[in-house]
Design brief:
It is built from 19 helices and no strands. It has about 450 residues and is mostly helical. The N and C termini lie close together (about 10 Å). The model has no long low-confidence stretch (mean pLDDT about 85).
Length: about 450
């Protein structure tokens, strides 16, 4: 497979001019849309935003190739600049309207993530995955809540709280901290097409971490409620509900995977429409039934990859839609970032970001010693674990309903911390893949085998 031609300075200048022109055009469209009738006004803004994010995100990511930053960073920056906190070319309501794309994107990401989990690679790296799961999560749940308690004066809503309540909130924050970002990992993989131990380990760890987080969240929320709500008692009903949720999600995912195998094997046409149907309709059905739909799609992808010969066909179909979905998903995420909030909470957010990243580095070194990992994991095994996105924000939103006394402020702090992890995490992971020599190996292998 030949490398893409290097773009010259004139091409880059044209891209920059086109990007600036797009921003100017979008500002004009935003003003024009305000003069349309009510029902057309909303539709016009949404359609214009989708087109703008696709074009501006692609141009921004291309320009950032000059400084070797990942495409995801370009998508995020395009959304931040165009969003309601900078140029206001895209307003709050439009960003909310495009949230339907998030479910589609996350379902495809989970499906692709499950299809990337190959049994052979999991067996080869089983010792590393088990060690990392125990060490990374155990260390984070020890260090990060301790940091939260010690730095409670930096967190506005914990000032004046009794120490047991602060300890309970710190444990909840620890659960948020151990969430990872499958979307960021899969986005970087789609750009760099890597292969190797670091790639296999990161995909395996990040995809399986969602299950760990779901279990720990139920345990911690049940355990800390008596510390936050006087008179509350420890209930074991949540543990039964958790088992039902996990087993049901795996069962539905297995069934969905087998149906996908049959469709790919005997029909194999209009796969894109099937994927859109899954992402836009089936997600809502599974959520209505109160099952974990990310785990469901992860299981479905795993079944297709490891119990049939249709895994590569599924991955190819997702890749054909992936770039468009990733651009809109991360540009919308960038527009969501509340910059004034980040400015207010930056001392605490920056501290928690730094401690979380440092904990991941130390955890990777300890894991390497326990599991006898190769040099690339010893040096870079932490890099894919920094990013955070939808799951962390979803947990924070759940806190607002469960603990209204501080839930809104907790969610605001989560948004500020996730913003930093979302901006720097993909950059670190791409750097790790480049430095370890794994970038492009997957594409080269595919080209050699064709």
């Amino acid at each position: 497979m030949s490398a893409p031609a290097r773009k010259g300075p004139w091409t880059r200048l044209l891209e920059l001019g086109a990007l600036l022109g797009l921003f100017a055009l979008m500002l004009g469209v935003e003003r024009l849309a305000g003069s349309l009738p009510g029902e057309w006004q909303r539709t016009g803004r949404d359609l214009a935003a989708v087109g703008f994010f696709l074009l501006a995100g692609t141009l921004a990511s291309s320009l950032l190739e000059v400084v070797r930053l990942p495409h995801l960073t370009g998508f995020l920056l395009a959304g931040i600049v165009a969003g309601p906190y900078v140029l206001h070319a895209v307003d709050h309501q439009t960003v909310a309207d495009l949230s339907v794309v998030n479910s589609l994107a996350l379902s495809l990401i989970a499906l692709a993530g499950g299809a990337e989990l190959r049994l052979e690679a999991l067996r080869r790296g089983f010792r590393s995955l088990v060690a990392a799961t125990v060490v990374q999560n155990g260390l984070a749940l020890l260090v990060i809540p301790t940091t939260f308690v010690l730095a409670r004066d930096l967190v506005p809503f914990t000032r004046g709280m009794p120490l047991p309540a602060v300890f309970a909130v710190a444990l909840l924050w620890g659960v948020v901290a151990i969430t990872r970002s499958p979307s960021a990992v899969m986005g970087i993989l789609s750009q760099t097409r890597p292969a190797g131990r670091l790639t296999d380990f990161t995909v395996g760890f990040v995809m399986s971490s969602d299950v760990v987080v779901v279990v720990l969240l139920a345990l911690v929320m049940t355990g800390v409620r008596p510390l936050l709500e006087p008179g509350a008692t420890l209930s074991l009903a949540a543990f039964g509900e958790l088992g039902h949720e996990l087993l049901g999600s795996v069962a539905i995912g297995t069934t969905l995977g087998l149906l996908l195998v049959a469709y790919l094997r005997f029909v194999g046409r209009q796969v894109l429409l099937v994927l859109l149907l899954l992402g836009l309709v089936v997600v809502d059905v599974i959520a209505y039934l109160r099952f974990e739909w990310l785990l469901t799609f992860l299981t479905a992808g795993f079944v297709v990859q490891n119990f049939s010969r249709q895994g590569e066909k599924l991955l190819h179909a997702i890749e054909n839609t992936g770039e468009v979905v990733y651009v809109i998903f991360f540009a919308t995420a960038g527009a969501h970032l509340d910059l004034p909030l980040l400015k207010t909470l930056w001392p605490a957010a920056l501290l928690f970001f730094a401690v979380r990243a440092a904990t991941a580095v130390v955890g990777a070194r300890l894991t390497a010693r326990l599991a006898g990992d190769p040099p690339e994991l010893r040096s870079w095994g932490w890099a894919g674990l920094v990013s955070q996105a939808g799951l962390a924000l979803g947990i924070a939103a759940r806190m607002q309903g469960q603990f209204p006394a501080f839930g809104a402020q907790f969610g605001a702090l989560a948004v500020a911390a996730v913003a930093l992890n979302e901006l720097f995490g993909p950059v670190l992971f791409k750097l790790a893949l480049d430095r370890s020599g794994e970038s492009g190996k997957g594409a080269a292998a595919a080209g050699g085998g064709s």
